[in-house]
């Protein structure tokens, strides 16, 4: 009789044998620049995202799974196994734009392996982890593992923007009994803050026109603007980094995901500050200087907003645009799970009005909370602990917005290991290859534990 130890040895040997195939398939996905392009094609989010969806389904079909693509192009899925129970694994194939290409050591959609790391936009968020979960199950099946349930890998296409994909899935398809999304970090995310994105719009009474930032949910790493009188002197006085580029001034920052906005450097905020110091007053500048500079969590607006489960409210100015008519600030907030969204909106609206802004909601995803004693949390935590031997790391609350919100009884589970870097949304995004192998082992163990 085959022991658990001998089975694991067989699984891990197979993982090493097939890891090069995993990387080849990942290459084919990363090479597709699948960020939102509403390009007037028949596809809802652009041809590149559709191409990524079709490519992933081709990979799954090659690996022996049944596949389906939504005729409207909002989602697809691949399924294997038999039984009433349906385990859902939810991943997304859209990515955030690459931003300033000069900050990449290698082109973002030309993947490269160097020093044990695999670089490319989408490698960590979320093409790499999604494909890893697929390969984990495939390895089990190739080694004789018998499923008594169905596994459905569900692929979304609008996670980085307005989540117009998952409502279509929920409307049309069977709901998983239980599920996880490999789109965060280990050991497990049991609570996710509310995600609120909004625009603050005021009349533009300056003569300025410019725009900057790539996405609501990214701290902007730079903004390229026309040089105005006193701007360079103000930047130097404030000791803000800048560069001359194409006859313009590029104000520099550090990009991170909006869920950890306080760890980045917001180039938009710095530019508005420098404008103000140089003598050019704008409503956006006053709002930022008086409420955001020197504060990690926008305390002048909200006071302290924090709870024991999920920490502080996060606030990020991700994009800005000055048109001839309006000043527009695009803001991403992560609201602690125990706080009322309407109170946050009321507080921000009243504060914004003092500066001449009106509040407009862009998108909202409610917070989620999965009890720590739930069967799902206990099952996945045991899989993580048995593979890693890590009994110290505990389930955590996060500020990210993952597809765990899309269906019931679902949590975010990996791929990033404790103490490993999260590189999503940043230049030179990468995965650590050895970490990915560990993640695949954890996913194998999880699939084993879903057996009834």
UniProtKB/TrEMBL annotation:
Keyword Hydrolase recorded: yes
Cofactor(s) essential for the protein: Zn(2+)
Record keywords, A-Z: Dipeptidase, Hydrolase, Metal-binding, Metalloprotease, Protease, Zinc
Entry-linked InterPro entries: ArgE/DapE_CS, Bact_exopeptidase_dim_dom, M20A_pepV-rel, Peptidase_M20, Peptidase_M20A
Pfam hit, one: Peptidase_M20
Taxonomic superkingdom: Bacteria
EC number from the UniProt entry: 3.4.13.-
EC primary class: hydrolase
GO function term, MF aspect, one: dipeptidase activity
Listed PANTHER family: ACETYLORNITHINE DEACETYLASE (PTHR43808), N-ACETYL-L-CITRULLINE DEACETYLASE (PTHR43808:SF31)
Family in the record: Belongs to the peptidase M20A family.
Protein's name in the database: Sapep family Mn(2+)-dependent dipeptidase
Organism field: Candidatus Cetobacterium colombiensis
Organism placement in taxonomy: Bacteria, Fusobacteriati, Fusobacteriota, Fusobacteriia, Fusobacteriales
